Structure formats: structure tokens, C-alpha cells
Amino acid sequence: MAQHIKIFILLAPNPLMLDFAGPVEVLRRANKIQTDFVFAVEYIAPHAEMMTSAGLPVSGLGKLPKYLPSKSYLMISGTTADILGSGDTPSRAQIEKDKQTIISWLRNIVTKDQTLLTICSGALLAAHAGLFDGYRCTTHHECLDELRSISPHIRIEENRLFTEDRNRFASAGITSGTDLMLHIVGKKLGLAAAADIAKHMVVFARRNGDAPQLSPFVQGRSHLHPTVHRIQDLIAADPTKDWDVQTLSREAHMSARHFSRLFNAQTGLSVPDYVNGLRIAIAENALRAQKVNIEHLVGDLGFGSSRHFRRAWQKHHQLSPTQWRDQQIGNA
């Protein structure tokens, strides 16, 4: 018989839809691909109906319960002051009142028997309730200063997609909430199942919590040049392919010299550095996940030689791949 895992989704005032919709889609897919576990989701909030960041109200929400079952999960969404369209946006006074209601409820209800997950600014509500005192924690990079001001007892981790400290998890928010839930599901169902879910959701690369909030997969993407974006999409779809300037310049319908200059000007990176940055990010995830053979990894990632791989690695890390992997395992 399948084991039921209760997961409460707490919608804070003006919740960001991506904060809770992405993680819940991970759970929905997890329930479909296996029969060992059933993730039973229940939505709770200060009101039966809440306006979301997209200007779309969600209704039928449950009340904040008087207790949470042992070994259940509680996920707190982030909030925003910006609502799409006018709609029936709650007043600032009502939003503040709802936040205080949630903080008080968290302080009185959540214990060490539950697993806490916060998405984006949801960490601020949990921090006000004292739930991150003595724990590692992160939040969206725009909320870090506010998080610091709440309590000196929180061990804040900057530039992280998510943190894990015993039964307290915190994500940087928005899309990183999906990464966090994939991590949670992976711990229950295994990395292969999590990877299958990520593939189904067209999440390009399942990211580890220690990855920076500004991932290599979005680095150099702030420009507006459509051809360079198209080439970057081509590279990102298969970073292990032998992408050289000549090949990519033909895809861009430009001379190699003109393309190389254009790519560098728009991204701030040379073509080899951009390609190798994506490959090193994949190598990091592989090294964290298991004790892979580094020589095999060199070939799998498309590096022509161990020397080529190590030269690219040294641009990102002072430690050797083996030393870096051992350090990651030691910190886990």
C-alpha cells in the first residue's frame, strides 16, 4: 500500500503563482509515475479565497489548521506587492494583518516534527516566527537584507538556489521552488525519478541547491540580440556537443570573425567560455550526485582531453575536481 505524505501549501498574501504552482506540478507528476508514495496536497490560507500575483483569485482554500500531523510537510509561498491588473487587490492594512496572522500561527503550530519548506519571501514569515533560528536559510536575493534584520540567529546563505538544514528547507524563490521540490522528491523516490519529472516538465537542467541563484544557464542572457539568443538556446540544448566558433557562425549565418565579436559583445563571454561554463555546471551536479569516474566525465561532457577539462575547471574552482567533490560530500 502506498505511503501517504501530507503536504500543506500555505498561500501567503498575494502569493506568487510560480512559487506554488511549479512545486505542486512536481508532486502531481511524482504521484503519476510511481505507486510507493502518494503526495497528498492541501491548500491553506488566512482566507478561503486569495488574490495571486497573476491577478487570478484562487478559492476553496482551507483554514489554517489547529495542528499539523507529525512528519507532514508545510510549504510557504512568497508574496508580492505587484498584482497583474487592478482586480480586488487587498489593502496594505489587510495584507499586513494576514501576515501577522500567519506568523502567529507558524509560531504556535510548527514544531520540529514537521518539515518546513519556504519559497522566496516565504522565508521572511517563517523567520519572524523564529523557525529558522539556528538553521541555514536563504531567500530571494532582493530579500536578504530584510532576512538579516529579523534575527541574528539565522545562518544566512547568499547566492544559493536552496538550502537544506535538517528538516528546514528554503529556496531563493520563483523557479527555484521547482528545483527544491525536485530535490525533496528525489530524496523520497531517487534521483532517476526526479530527473524524469524534470524532463517531463521541460526543466532543462535539474539544479543542485548549492548552485548560485544566477545560474550559468542564464548568465550572459540579459541582452536583446535575437540571433545570439538563438545560438545560446542551441548550445544549451546540448552543451556536450562539439560547439566551435566555425560551426556556430554557420548557424548564425555570419563569418566566424563577426560572430565571435558579436557573441562576446552581447554576452560578455567568449564562445568557449560560455560552452565550458555550461559543461562545468553539469559536471558539478554529477560530482555532487555520485562518485563518478572523472575520466569518463571528461568524455561525456564533450571535452577533448583531461587537460582541456581541468583547464576549464580551474576557471571556476581553486580545488581540483576530486578535492571539490570530497569537500561537497563532507559538507553534505
UniProtKB/TrEMBL annotation:
It comes from the Bacteria. SMART domains: HTH_ARAC. Residues 229-327 form the HTH araC/xylS-type domain. Signal peptide: none annotated. This is AraC family transcriptional regulator. Coiled coil: none annotated. Keywords: Transcription, Transcription regulation. InterPro entries: Class_I_gatase-like (IPR029062), DJ-1/PfpI (IPR002818), Homeodomain-like_sf (IPR009057), HTH_AraC (IPR018060), INH-QAR (IPR052158). Gene3D superfamilies: 3.40.50.880, Homeodomain-like.
